[in-house]
Amino acid sequence: MPRKFFRKYLPDGDTVRGYRYLAWLGRWLHHPNLWHLNRHSVAGGFAIGLFAGLVPGPLQMLTAALLVVPLKKNLPVALLTTLYTNPFTIVPLYLIAIAYGRFLLGAGNHPVTVEPYAWDWTHSLDSLQGLVHWTISLGPPLAVGLVALALTLAGAGYCAVQIAWRAYVVIAWRHRARRRAERKANR
């Protein structure tokens, strides 16, 4: 892949390790795969970022970092990949996760409704109780669906990066070989 382009924007490992507030992490940030751009490290970081992106709440980057360090994959790629979940994409992703969970649990193919009841402001307590019951009813399909979707996205992302990286390298090799052959023919 175009390493020069990514190196321009990704932080250097020595720079990050030099930050005073990260000094307590010490040796954890010293493995070269956390910072190098190679096929396996980037693919693993991308997969971990896709997986951690579906963690509920603001713990996505923390989860990515906690998974990346022991697995020795690319840390900046994992952290940047978690940003695919944002206020615009989280609702569709959770709806897909609920549907996926319902499918895996055999709960039927009924469409998922975002608003299963009408909120009545004059009876807010009853509406709040309805919201709580609706949320609890989504519990198992949502929990199973989030884990299954996260694993599916991580596996697909890992394979996609591996294939794309390999295809780029093969194309570059062929292009280089063609240029050499042309230079040789012109002599």
Give your account of this protein's structure.
This protein has one domain. The mean pLDDT is 80. The longest helix has 63 residues, at 124-186. The protein has helices at residues 3-9, 13-17, 39-52, 60-71, 75-81, 90-105, 124-186. With 187 residues, it is mainly alpha-helical. The chain has 7 helices and no strands. The protein is elongated.
Features:
66% helix, elongated, mainly alpha, 0% strand, 187 residues, single chain
Write the layout of secondary structure elements.
Layout: H1 3-9, H2 13-17, H3 39-52, H4 60-71, H5 75-81, H6 90-105, H7 124-186
Helix pairs in contact: 3-4, 3-5, 3-7, 4-5, 6-7
Q: Note the overall shape.
A: elongated
Supply the helix-strand structural class. Answer: mainly alpha
Mean pLDDT: 80
Q: Number of DSSP helices?
A: 7
Distance between the termini: 31 Å
Order of helices and strands: HHHHHHH
Oligomer: single chain
Kindly estimate the percentage of residues that lie in beta strands according to DSSP. Answer: under 5%
Count structural domains: 1
Helix content: 55-70%
Question: What's a quick, concise take on this entry?
Answer:
This protein is 66% helix and 0% strand.
